[in-house]
Amino acid sequence: MTPKARLLTEQRRRNLLDLVDQQGQVTAADMVKRFAISAVTIRSDLDALASLGGRSSIARRGRSAA
Pick the residue with more confidence: 35 or 52? Predict the structure, then answer.
């Protein structure tokens, strides 16, 4: 992964956490539309955030929601 791609990924994940913080729960479909990325990418992001713990522990996967 290039440094620019890594930065974009990290920023998107921070934005995803901020969105979940603000709304409490967000569906995968909402995240796909908001960030213009695939559902596979959202699932990957949620898995990565959940593995970090801490603030990221809010990124728990349910049935197509975080």
Answer: 35
- Has this prediction a pTM greater than 0.90? no
* Torsion angles phi and psi, residue 41, rounded to 5: -65, -40
Sequence ranges of the domains in the chain: 3-58
Dump pLDDT digits (tens) for 42-54. 989 988 888 877 6
Q: Is the dihedral of CA 38, 42, 45, 47 positive or negative?
A: negative
- DSSP notation for 7-63: HHHHHHHHHHHHHHHHHS--BHHHHHHHHT--HHHHHHHHHHHHHH-GGGGG----S
Tokens of 14: 């921070």
Rounded distance between C-alpha atoms, residue 43 and residue 61, angstroms: 8
